[in-house]
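Q: Make up one entry.
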Amino acid sequence: MNVPDPVSLTGARHGSGDGVSMRFSFGVLLLLFSAVLVPAGVWWALTVAPDIEGMTFLQRLVYFHVPSALLAYVLFTIAAACGLLYLWSGDGAWDAGMVAGIETGLLALSVVIVTGAVWARNEWGRWWVWDDPQLTSTAVLWFAYVAVLVVRACVITPGDAVRLTAVLSLVGVLFCFLARAIYFLGQEQVLHPVTVPMGRAQGSDPGAVADLRAAKTIGWLACAAVYFALFLLRRRVARAEQTVGRIEARLEAA
């Protein structure tokens, strides 16, 4: 039996991995950066950031809740864009980006749901309310993307699974924008807070407002570093899985 050349199995050539290695290194660098930012953000939120008038201590969750929510939408949008590019080109690199975007976006959305539920239990006396459009649309979005991954895993033919995931990711991101529209158009009917005004920092002291802004900035930087590091690393893993799949398929056919 003739065993195929490993180079021909992977499609690798000298220098072809430089871009992937650079992205991988950047992902590791972001992860190390987040290892500093996350503890700093937690410490600043708990000890330095001022209280907000009319809100409890748990309002400090907002410094991670809000960035996680918006970054989840960004990651789902990236996944949809990668899905569209895959349908156009058939390049597996876009499939890897799509999977990484969906899975990392789901992680961010899970953080949103958990932190929101903890805050709601403290503020409203309930973990969840189904008559709030923002909460309900967020739950539906979470279940929708979990269903996308389940469908992908259940479809036997790899090509069909990828194409179906791409189409569903496009539908999912449309629902993301619909959820945001529901939120902004129906603000008077929602329990979910719209904003946390800076002027409501306890005492409205300029220094307290500055500390509040700093807490929000650190929280944003920490969340962005974590999620995009995980996105890049998950994309790298997906590309490796594709390479292993090609090798197995060619060995079986040899």
Q: What stands out?
A: The chain has a mean pLDDT of 75. Residues 20-253 form one domain. DSSP finds seven helices and no strands in the chain.
